[in-house]
Design goal:
Shape: globular
Helix content: 25-40%
Distance between the termini: 60 Å
Largest sheet: 8 strands, antiparallel
Radius of gyration: 24 Å
Number of strands: 25
């Protein structure tokens, strides 16, 4: 019995999805072989497959046997996924990828069905629906065994499905593959005229394998080389030819069920891009570092002190939030766009300087990048006294974290500047530090979130690990101890205490903070505790090894958009930092 395309595949928990990505867009693949999410042609475009958020549109390759169990894994250091299904009749494999590197206008999904143990029998369903499901496939035609169609403004071409039948704009068929044999499917989705002929599947697979091999380094200088390589591959797959890296592949996945905390992260955040570049620099991985420097310096030179916190991957303005009206992922909603487009985030300028300093340490800054450095410092001089939305994108305050990140960035880049310039930048750093000490130093000697808000905040770990203050500064040690004591639970860390409720009742543990805690503990000589935190947070992923922003400790479930780039960056950097000698900072009490 063929799958009824009018009945979407039920959603899975997030930990069961894999991501295929080619730099220009990503696709989410469920355990039944269901591609339920892909925007085309770019990350921030409308979805052509939106089954994930309750819309129509999917591309399925699924065993016909109703009794099967699922497995799979990424090929080492790539985003090539090998689906495995065990049925009553044997084992079926399907090798899955977006042809890499991708083209900005055309996505190519490669799917190679294989009979591993006994014959493979699968059903194939293609229901492309452009503009979040508004447009069915039309103008379908079969010529020389290749289907072509239109869906809205998109052009569709499906190779390897000559036997498919057409029913109400949906293509479906059953495919039988003998043991040891293979059958290739290739789907092209393009916003421009397609090439005269589809790619040769063998050539496409070889090119994709080779491109991934060249793109991802071995990561032998980390304490978890395999996972570090995988995190680097995720970041590489989320970074396009123009250098922009999206924060996440998805939108609308809830951080808390029915709490209206679900956002659209299909844009390039300056801060997240800096995190990725700094992690790559720590590992000596120059490709991702150079991309980050190129994108960030371009935004600074174009917009100066008015640099936005986030951009579309083609450097446009993030659109305003609107509601799509689809059912949404269970517990979520379907808002596209993001309110970040109206915010000022001071800490992003400090992160830019930290990125540039990391690049300078590897001799990767050119003259135009130094002009971006000067532009960035001019922006800090102009705006550091202003309230901003902060790293958590809340109400405008004079956040301690935002100012201290500027201090860290100024001190870092000053070490690579001529003496006169460096001295001037160090004076500015001292001035900002004094200002933070005046209004954000808690009576206990630690940093507090903001003037008038005495709570501690997990984000205050970042100035510690980034060198805002000297290694023996007692304020840093006191802050680390307080964060560990007040926000740590079972080896995971929460951002801050939101109200009188237990931490876990308000939100999930924040994995960026957890990995940063591991790095901070390592710097302060708590080696065993640092490794414990690293391993706990490293385990907070799904079966494919992908991280979300938050982790539900009690249910052991992933929460929020998926996968979250800055968590993979934090894991990558922590795995490198923990391989270095620790104990350079003042001891702490935990």
């Amino acid at each position: 019995m063929l799958h009824d395309s009018n009945e979407p595949f039920p959603p899975h928990v997030l930990r069961e999805y894999a991501m295929l990505a080619d730099g220009e867009r990503g696709a989410l693949l469920g355990p039944r072989g269901d591609v339920v999410w892909m925007c085309a042609p770019r990350w921030h475009s409308d979805a052509v497959f939106s089954d994930l958020i309750g819309g129509p549109g999917m591309f399925g390759v699924t065993p016909t046997d109703l009794r099967f169990v699922w497995g799979g894994s990424y090929e080492d250091g790539t985003l090539i996924w090998d689906s495995r299904w065990t049925t009553d009749a044997g084992q079926i494999g399907c090798r899955e990828a977006l042809m890499y590197p991708g083209e900005p206008e055309r996505a190519v999904i490669l799917r190679r069905i294989r009979g591993l143990d006994g014959p493979a029998r699968v059903r194939v369903v293609l229901d492309a629906r452009a503009n979040f499901g508004r447009h069915r496939m039309t103008r379908l035609a079969l010529s020389d065994g290749v289907w072509t169609a239109r869906s809205g403004d998109l052009r569709i071409r499906l190779t390897g499905a000559a036997q498919a039948r057409l029913d109400d704009g949906v293509l479906s068929m059953e495919v039988d593959v003998e043991e040891g044999a293979e059958h290739d499917l290739m789907l092209e989705v393009s916003s421009v005229r397609l090439p005269p002929a589809p790619p040769d599947p063998d050539v496409a697979w070889i090119a994709t394998e080779e491109a991934w091999r060249k793109a991802v380094p071995r990561m032998g200088n980390t304490i978890a080389a395999d996972d570090a390589r995988q995190s680097y591959a995720v970041l590489r797959g989320m970074t396009g030819a123009d250098g922009a890296m999206v924060a996440a592949a998805t939108m609308g996945l809830p951080e808390r069920a029915n709490a209206k905390r679900n956002y659209d992260y299909r844009y390039a955040w300056i801060r997240d891009q800096c995190f990725a570049g700094e992690a790559a620099a720590a590992c000596g991985a120059l490709g991702l570092l150079d991309d980050a420097v190129r994108f960030v310096s371009g935004r600074l030179l174009a917009d100066g002190a008015r640099m936005r916190p986030a951009y579309t991957v083609d450097c446009g303005r993030v659109p305003d939030e609107i509601e799509l009206g689809l059912p949404g992922y269970p517990g979520g909603s379907t808002k596209v766009g993001n309110w970040v487009n109206k915010q000022f985030q001071l800490d992003a300028f400090g992160e830019c300087l930290l990125l540039f300093a990391a690049a300078a340490g590897l001799d990767r800054l050119e003259l135009e990048h130094w002009r971006a450095v000067e532009t960035c410092i001019g922006a800090i001089e102009l705006r550091w006294r202003e309230p901003d939305a902060g790293i958590w994108e809340l109400d405008n305050q004079r956040w301690a974290h935002s100012r201290l990140m500027c201090v860290a960035g100024l001190r870092a880049i000053a070490r690579h500047a001529p003496a006169a310039q460096g001295s001037r930048w160090a004076v500015l750093a001292d001035m900002i530090t004094a200002d933070v000490s005046e209004d954000c130093l808690h009576p206990t000697g630690r940093w507090q979130r903001a003037p008038g808000d005495e709570r501690v905040d997990g984000s205050l770990l970042l100035p510690i690990v980034r060198g805002a203050l000297t290694p023996d500064d007692v304020r840093s040690a006191a802050t680390l101890s307080a964060i560990h004591r007040e926000l740590g639970r079972k080896g995971y860390l929460y951002r801050f205490s939101q109200d009188a409720r237990p931490l876990a009742d308000a939100e999930g543990a924040f994995l960026l903070c957890g990995f940063t805690m591991a790095t901070a503990l390592h710097l302060h000589g708590e080696e065993k505790e640092a490794v414990r935190w690293f391993e706990r947070n490293r385990a907070a992923c799904g079966s494919p090894g992908l991280f979300t922003e938050e982790y539900d400790i009690e249910q052991r479930q992933l929460r929020g958009n998926f996968p979250q780039g800055f968590v993979h960056a934090a894991m990558l950097e922590a795995s490198r930092r923990l391989a270095e000698p620790g104990g350079s900072h003042a001891p702490i009490v935990i």
